Amino acid sequence: MLLYGREYFKRRDISNTGVMVINVEQFERELPKILHMAKNSEKYPTHDQEMLGRYNSRKASKMYKLLPIHYNWKTYWRLEPSDFSQVKIVHIHGPKVGNYLEEMSTCNVTIVSPTFVFPDYIKLLNQGICCDHGRTSQWVVETTNKLQAPIEDLCEVKK
């Protein structure tokens, strides 16, 4: 019914719903049960990933499988043994263009300080800088810049 990707460190046991492939008909049938479980939980799930994970862990037959790793690639993952041509979807999870990804791509470790960075990003930034010296992040920054539409195409610019 659902396919979604790995979270940190490419581990198979932690799932991330940032990129999902959904069988809509099956999901619509299961959704009332998912919401019922959430409403009747001692603590309501914080987000969709937590809700789906809890529901899946309670079901006898698992409702999700992991996507192939190249369909939910994180900017802080080391490429090896993959290469850029194998990556199908980049999930800009954590540091983003304009929000610490450039610093990660240039291995600017001075930015990895709790005074400058959201606390949750510190682990991701360290991992991204240390894993391949920022090469994967640099590729994402360059690709994003190449694909970015000119401002004139996005909105009216007053002259």
In percent, how helical is the residue content?
25-40%
Q: Report the end-to-end length measured between terminal Cα atoms.
A: 51 Å
Structural class: alpha/beta
The number of helical elements comes to: 6
Averaged pLDDT: 77
Number of strands: 5
Please write the string of helix (H) and strand (E) elements. EEHHEEEHHHH
Please give the order of strands in the largest beta sheet.
Answer: 2-1-3
Shape: globular
Largest sheet: 3 strands, mixed
Beta fraction of the residues? 5-15%
Domains (count): 2
Instruction: Evaluate the radius of gyration.
Output: 19 Å
Task: Give the low-pLDDT segments.
Answer: none
Show the helix and strand layout.
Elements: E1 2-6, E2 15-22, H1 24-39, H2 48-58, E3 64-66, E4 73-74, E5 90-91, H3 101-105, H4 119-132, H5 135-147, H6 151-154
Parallel strand pairs: 1-3, 4-5
Antiparallel strand pairs: 1-2
Please supply descriptive tags for the structure shown above.
two-stranded parallel ribbon; 2 domains; alpha/beta; 6 helices; 159 residues; 3-stranded mixed sheet
